[in-house]
From TrEMBL:
Organism per entry: Berkelbacteria bacterium GW2011_GWA2_35_9
Classification via InterPro entries: DDH_dom (IPR001667), DHH_sf (IPR038763), DHHA1_dom (IPR003156), Oligoribo/pAp-PDE_c-di-AMP_PDE (IPR051319)
DHHA1 domain segment(s): 219-298
Every DDH domain range: 17-155
Molecular-function GO term, any one: nucleic acid binding
Residues in coiled coil: none
Signal peptide extent: none
Name of this chain's protein: MGPA protein
Length: 302
């Protein structure tokens, strides 16, 4: 794991620290940022977490001090970028980080965030939350039950409920330890699966009914447009998790859900085929992610 030894040395020089997560935050971004905040507070730091987008409804139970990036310019001199594979995904611009120290923590296997980072902790782990857990262990910091909840959320989210191929014996050991620390896996499950309001269920039903299969490339996909979002009283956050739900047939190469909202198309892709790398596909559209799970946001010109 790169640069973990620099962690304490770097934060020792700063009393106030900013943590920034990526646009359209998922469970790993939310869980790992909250856990990192707890770790920094243990070392006596004042911490603010910034997000370009509002937190999805499913995470509101965990909303604890998030600041809207557009309304709150970052004044802290040290900025942690958490779970961000690309600077463009943070919502920050170059002037936001002028004369700032950037410390990134990320687990994406083709992370580009090192281009703007003076310090980087990178590891090929299931999630950024698993890396944060390892930082706690490295410095022998006790993990309280609430922090364990945050870390479980991150791991559970980025492993598709412990079903993806990025789960190994180390991941299971981490989860087991977090449960021993008082973490509740049920909380992660409720955030990601149980908060399905009636309109959202109807939207998912519509999307599933409209699934199409591209036989040439082995792609199963569905498209949701502005019209459907308006019809069911939903937004793009209500589609979160749908691509994981349909990712269930080993004979299909790629599962994808495309959402049109205003002049943008958001794509989410999953694959369990060892020969397919959806992260490379996402990069074509300035997106990113992992070999098995990736996404992008494409702006429609004109």
């Amino acid at each position: 794991m790169k640069s973990i030894a620099n962690f304490y040395k770097v934060i020792s020089s700063y009393e106030e620290i900013a943590v920034v997560i990526h646009k359209n935050p998922d469970g790993d971004a939310v869980g790992s940022s909250l856990a990192l905040r707890d770790l920094l507070k243990y070392f006596g730091k004042k911490v603010k977490i910034y997000s370009f987008d509002e937190l999805p409804e499913m995470f509101l139970v965990l909303q604890d001090g998030y600041l809207k990036l557009m309304d709150n310019p970052i004044v802290e001199k040290l900025i942690f970028l958490v779970d961000c594979a690309d600077f463009n995904l943070t919502g920050l611009i170059n002037t936001d980080i002028l004369n700032k120290i950037i410390f990134s923590i990320d687990h994406h296997n083709r992370t580009k965030i090192k281009k703007v980072s003076k310090y980087l902790i990178y590891a090929d782990k299931s999630s950024t939350a698993e890396i944060i857990y390892n930082i706690f262990q490295y410095f022998n910091v006790d993990i309280e039950s609430k922090t364990a909840d945050y870390l479980l959320l991150g791991i559970y989210s980025d492993t598709g409920g412990m079903l993806h191929s990025n789960v190994n014996e180390k991941t299971l050991e981490v989860v087991s330890n977090l449960l021993l620390y008082g973490g509740k896996l049920k909380l992660a499950m409720s955030c990601l699966k149980e908060r399905k309001k009636f309109n959202r269920i109807k939207l998912w039903g519509y999307a599933i009914e409209r699934l199409k299969f591209n036989q040439k490339y082995g792609i199963l996909y569905s498209v949701i447009t502005n019209l459907e979002l308006e019809k069911y009283g939903c937004d793009q956050n209500d589609v979160s998790g749908l691509v994981n739900f349909i990712n269930s047939d080993k004979n299909i190469n790629v599962f994808a859900v495309f959402i049109q909202q205003n002049n943008k198309i958001k794509g989410s892709m999953r694959s369990e085929n060892k020969l397919i790398d959806v992260g490379k596909i996402a990069e074509i559209f300035s997106g990113g992610g992992h070999k098995k799970a990736a996404g992008f946001v494409y702006k429609i010109e004109g």
